[in-house]
Design goal:
heterodimer, A: about 260 residues, Rossmann fold, 2 domains, six-stranded mixed sheet, 10 strands, B: about 350 residues, mainly alpha
Chain lengths: ~260, ~350
């Protein structure tokens, strides 16, 4: 198997909040087109790692680069401009807007026309508006929410809101998508559909980094898995290797357990 | 449908001078119109970005002073020993400069406060208005201080083929204010329906999420502040050339409060809100004047404000719009395409 080109590179990243070490010396890479999962018990530092990569948190030490561009010091919206788009655990939709309007906001990066063009309603601004509306409808269909398109996002079920969150991220045309616990709170069939969706997204050439607790889901969808505990990487490898790794089993189940 | 209502409204306003001859009422309508333009600019910030500018009158006042001084000329010492002698320019140049300089002040205030936002923006804008008021009051050489700038010329516009027209009468000023109001309304409407407007709404609702899809917070909010301040400056310029006398009292806090009340009762975040709220609170004094002392009028405003917000908590326009067009959206049984107010707006954008 030839290794794909490296998309995301995390080098020696450490994050300390005062005396608390949230992450220490984290190194990992994600190849182009890979699906990599970041797992670990609660408080292991998964979301912190996400926040560092997407610029919401400045690392105390270390460097992150995406496709050769150093991300240190960049603001979240600048990182988003590089094509690195994330979803959130909780705050995942604009609750008071319709699903369709949510996606229009998400299409911000595609809709840039100059202020003057927008105010004067010049042809370029109009055609851009039309394109965005078409794209929003496409995305709504793509995640299977066309019947809910004109309902307020806040009125949707939890699983549906997660889908809106992903569609919103996709609207921003990511080349790499970071999903923070996307299936938490979903039932089995919703999770199953979601796994299909993730595969579809990858098949469109989008690299995916996933933080997730749902082990069966992680095992079935990931190309590689990185395991964190107490802010350090304790294991890394393909799903089969991780499944049988005694260090990982110990981290999850404690000492004395012999089977996962 | 929305565009239809808007055109009907403009036609109705344009027809007012045909049947209304009372100069006092015309005067009330003109000043109300000027304040409505100010309220529309405030609404762009408060209603569409959620940032409350409690010093909004500063931009209005700056526009008024810039425009007045440009058209009057001045001879004043500047800091660092400079001295500027300015010969009078046509008021229309003052109008343009008012927009530019007020907009620039909006940029500065935005730059200062939007890194932190929220309460900080409120405080910075209040302080800014107070500082500007003190400057206007004490820089007597430039502003005449409490003696006021008087004899401000009326606006003259050049009409191709017809020569210059100086807008002295109430009728002329009424149409000028109406024209500027329509331009401001269309401009704000275009802006909030563009991707700039969606970025603003996204930021107001969920900043973290908005940032994650690539929206630049500081840039978006500063842009809103600049445009808002520029429009307020235009309103201030109209005020200066219509009233033809301005003093530092134009910066009074109560004037900002009046604009905020207009926006909130009419409905913040609704394009027509400031127009409706502005008509109510702009014309209320006219009807209360025969029966109440000015002090008692303020109490009446308070009463009206409370009643409106009690009956229609989101403001008049959004509450009514919801009542008429958005009835089903909450029920689970509606047809898939529940029609919301915003969609209606977009259909015609």
């Amino acid at each position: 198997m030839t290794a794909p080109a490296i998309a995301l590179k995390v080098e020696q990243v450490a994050v300390r909040f005062g005396g608390l070490v949230a992450l220490s010396d984290m190194n990992f890479t994600v190849g182009e087109g890979e699906i990599v999962s970041l797992i670990g018990p609660n408080g292991a530092g998964k979301t912190t790692a996400f926040n560092v990569v997407t610029g919401f948190l400045e690392p105390t030490h270390g460097a992150v680069s995406y496709r050769g561009t150093a991300l240190n010091g960049l603001k979240p919206h600048q990182i988003a401009d590089l094509g690195l788009i994330r979803t959130f655990q909780r705050t995942s939709v604009f609750r008071n807007d319709t699903v369709y309007d949510n996606l229009l906001v998400g299409l911000h990066r595609q809709g840039r026309v100059s202020l003057l063009e927008a105010i004067l309603g010049l042809p370029r601004a109009r055609s851009s508006q039309r394109r965005l509306k078409e794209r929003a409808s496409e995305l709504v269909e793509w995640v299977g929410l066309e019947r809910r398109a004109h309902d307020l996002a806040g009125s949707l079920s939890y699983g549906e809101q997660r889908l809106v969150g992903v569609a919103l991220a996709l609207a921003a045309e990511p080349s790499m998508l970071l999903l923070d616990e996307p299936v938490s709170g979903m039932n089995a069939s919703e999770t199953h559909t979601f796994v299909q969706l993730i595969r579809n997204i990858r098949n469109r050439g989008v690299t995916i980094l996933l933080v997730e607790h749902d082990m069966p889901m992680v095992m079935s969808v990931s190309d590689r898995i990185v395991v964190l505990n107490y802010g350090r990487i304790i294991a890394e490898g393909q799903p089969d290797e991780i499944r049988n790794n005694p260090v990982v089993i110990e981290a999850y189940l404690g000492q004395g357990a012999t089977r996962a | 449908m929305r565009t239809g209502i808007a055109i009907l409204t403009v036609v109705a306003f344009a027809s007012v001078p045909l049947w209304l001859r009372d100069p006092y009422l015309m005067n009330a309508l003109i000043t109300t119109g000027i304040f409505i333009i100010g309220a529309m600019s405030l609404n762009l910030l408060l209603g569409f970005t959620g940032q409350l500018s409690l010093g909004h009158i500063a931009f209005f006042g700056i526009g008024a002073y810039v425009s007045a001084l440009t058209s009057l000329g001045f001879d004043a010492g500047m800091p660092f020993g400079f001295r500027i002698v300015h010969e009078p320019w046509p008021p229309i140049v003052g109008f343009v400069l008012a927009i530019v300089i007020a907009g620039f002040c909006g940029y500065l205030v935005g730059l200062l406060s939007f890194r932190v936002r929220g309460a900080y923006f409120v405080i910075v804008t209040i302080s800014f208005a107070e500082v500007v008021r003190l400057v206007a009051l004490n820089w007597v050489e430039l502003t005449q201080g409490p003696l006021a700038l008087t004899n401000i010329p009326s606006i003259t516009i050049g009409l191709p083929g017809l020569g210059d027209l100086t807008l002295r009468t109430k009728l002329q000023n009424y149409y000028l204010v109406l024209a500027v109001a329509v331009v401001a309304y269309v401009l704000i409407s275009r802006l909030v329906h563009s991707h700039f407007g969606r970025a603003m709404r996204g930021l107001m609702e969920n900043e973290t999420l908005a940032v994650s899809v690539g929206i630049d917070v500081t840039k978006t909010l500063t842009l809103a502040a600049v445009i808002s301040a520029g429009i307020a400056g235009a309103a201030g310029s109209l005020y200066a050339h219509y009233i033809r006398i301005i003093d530092p009292e134009v910066f009074a806090f109560i004037n900002t409060v009046t604009m905020v009340i207009m926006v909130i009762t009419g409905g913040k975040g609704s394009l027509a809100g400031p127009v409706v709220g502005g008509m109510i609170f702009g014309l209320l004094p006219v009807f209360l004047r025969p029966i109440m002392a000015p002090e008692a009028q303020w109490i009446a405003y308070g009463g009206v404000l409370i009643v409106i917000l009690f009956v229609l908590p989101r403001g008049i326009v959004p509450s009514l719009a919801q009542r008429f067009t958005w009835r089903g959206s909450r029920a689970e049984t509606v047809a898939p395409v529940a029609f919301s107010k915003r969609d209606a707006a977009k259909e015609h954008a």
